[in-house]
Amino acid sequence: MASEKMLKALNEQLNFEYESANYYLAMGAYCADEDFEGIENFFMVQADEERFHARKFYDYINDRDGRVKISSMEEPKNEFSSIKDAFETALAHEKKVTERINNLMKLAHEENDYATISFLNWFVDEQVEEEATMKTIIAKLERIGDSPQGLFMLNKELGSRTFTPGE
Known about the structure:
- With about 170 residues, the chain is mostly helical.
- Helices cover about 75% and strands about 0% of the residues.
- It contains five helices and no strands.
- The radius of gyration is 17 Å and the shape is elongated.
């Protein structure tokens, strides 16, 4: 069984993962309103991934004889000045998630909780990928600039993204 302190921290992260899903839903809604269905799809898949991450925490807490506790969520940012602003907001959010995962890992090490360290390793790797993805898209948006054709091509590219649990 994990310590009460660890279970509390894991529950906080579970709830933050659901909050993250709402952030991406808000970004998707903005893109839909701007008629960028492909980029909307990207953010909707991102929201699916965050709910998948929350479910991993949910299952892990239960496996460690803990009690899952769902809390209220902060309202996400709903307005963006551009598609690039939405992705910059996403990157800033992912950096916050990375910081939270690192803090969980630090606590697990302090408590010599090797099961939780093993569990969190997946999330450490996932955050490297999440930040890299957002940085790559921002770099593409910077190269595109004001080019409608470039934005059209990126919209089409991001529209092909699908959700595959575990990836």
